[in-house]
Amino acid sequence: MADTVPTAAPFVPETDDLDKLREAAQCCRGCDLYKEATRTVFGEGPPDAGTVLVGEQPGDIEDRQGRPFVGPAGKLLDRAVADAGLDRSGTYVTNAVKHFKHKPAAPGKRRIHESPNQTEIMACRPWLVAEFSLLHPRAVVALGAVAAKGLLGPSFRVTKQRGIPMPWPESAHHPEDFAGEAHDDAFVLATIHPSAVLRADDRDAAYRGLVDDLRVVAEQLASRR
Question: Maximum distance among all alpha carbons in the chain?
C-alpha cells in the first residue's frame, strides 16, 4: 500500500469563524512537525484586514508564546510596515507552516529553525486555504521562499520575482483554492522574510529592500481605492 500523503485537511473544520479555526488548529496532526513543537501558531489580525502578510513558519519565541511575528523578526517587520506607509493594525499575519521546525538545542538555548520541506508546506496548506476563505484581502504579501512556495508554487523564486505585484488569485498555486476569496483587483507580491534582514551582512541595505517592496504594496493599495 502506498504511503499516505501528509495533510492537515482532516483536521480543518467547516466554519466561518476564525476563532474556531484557530482553536481547531491546536489539535492538528497533519504532519510530524507537531511532535517537536510547543503548540500550533495560527494567524492573527482583523478578519476584515486589507492586507495579509504570510510568513514561513513560527520561530522560537512564537512557538513559546503561541502568536505569530512576536520575536525579533516580527519587531523588524512592524517597523518596516510602518516605514513603508502601511497600517500594521489593518494587517493579518500568518505563516505558511503553523508549527516550528527546528534543530535540537541545549537546555536554555534558543532553538534554531530549519526550513520546512515541500511535503510539510503542502501538508499545512489546507489551514492557509481555510484562513483565506474567511479573509478577503486586497493585498497578499509572501514573506520569504517558504511562503512564496506555499502560495505561488514550488517553481516560484523570490530572488528573481520579488517586489512585482501579480493578480491574485490567478497567480496562486492551485488558484481554484482561493477563487472568490479576495477583492476583484487583489494582488500578491513576494519579498524577503524579515529574518533574512537580521542574517544579512549588510542589514541596512537588506532592510531598505524590504521596505521598498512593502512600499510598492502601499502604493498599489492607494492607487486602487
Answer: 54
